What does this fold into?
Amino acid sequence: MSGELKPTETLDVRGEVCPYPDVMTQKKVKSMKSGEILEVLVDYPLSVERIPESVKKMGHEVLKVEKTGASEWKILIKIK
Amino acid sequence: MIEPAAILSGLIVGILFGFALQRGRFCMNSAFRDVLLLKEYTLLKAVIVALIVSMIGFHAMASLGIIQLNPKPFFWGANIVGGFIFGVGMVLAGGCASGTTYRVGEGMVGSLVALLGYMIAAVITDVGALKVVKDYLQTNTKITITNPGPLVSPKANYPTLANVVGIDPWIVVIVIVIIGVGVLVWKRGGREKTEGSIYEKIFKKGWPWWATGIVIGIIEIIAFPASAATGRNYPLGITGGWSSFLNSLTNGDATKLSWETFLVIGVVIGAGISAGIAGEFKLRAPGPGRLIQQFIGGLLLGIGAVIANGCNIGHVLSGIPQLAISSIIFGFFVIIGCWITAYLLLMRR
It folds into this structure.
């Protein structure tokens, strides 16, 4: 459990509008096993704020929200 | 011909509005849909705050004689059919009229495609092949009243929550404000504050829902007299702006341009500035299937809004604070259309 956070799966929702980034993330999270890490690539500001909130509500852990470029973010989620 | 002062005033209010829409991520599609889809009330609360602020502001200005309220014509058939089509359209388009407009400023190509569909369909329904449908619904289901009552323009002989029962509009306003505040207290939560310096809070972070609601309410209050001064006695609107824009472009008739045309252009500019400062501007597009879906959604937005004579801004954000029955009916059926489509498209399977 060092700093190495290797995502089990990556979900790329760049270019998508409301509400697809949120809905696709939720679906993906539901399909994954406990302990796995999901990396979400997203470029839609509203979803960057909302995905962590909704994932936390579902009981999972948000490890990191990182801005990776002009209007691009990476969200790391650990499935509980 | 439109005066330069009207162009400037429309642009300035539009830039402010676009900035606030982008910072607040203010989209009624998301607001209504999230209640069903995510049990999330944050954006809906921003809408409620904006409605409360503008409702009080409009009635205060009307009481002081600064403006005369101008509720939209009530044609129940057109308001119901148009509202439903608009509600379906905004889910497919990935945004309502204002949401689609401000996201163009963020560089979202899908929203630009939706906007093109929206403009084209608005002109087709307003003056083109679908005009007959609009005219049929609007003439055959129109209901007027004889006495518009206090604070309302005598020319606007259309029903409001106050004049249908013949009571003082302020009584209705107070009742609605109490109900609205009740909902805000009942559904507590959501992002209430952000971290950082004042500069970061305003220009870099997404605004909390209450701040978004207050700012958009204040912009409505500024918009009403600003627009009325140019001869258009109405606060914010989107659809009329885009249809007049395309209409003047294609037939070269600049007399169609109004304050509202420059307002919508300002919204795109304002959202672009806001997204640029916050590092949220990027040209980006979804896959071809989604682009087609958004285009069809845009067409439905245009058809629905023109049939009903207003969109989520003209009717919901500007009309409900004037207590217009037409706007309330429209808003209700937008939500019905939105929920049915969101359920079929996003919740099943």
Notes: The mean pLDDT of chain A is 88. Chain A is about 30% helix and 30% strand. The longest helix of chain A spans residues 45-57.
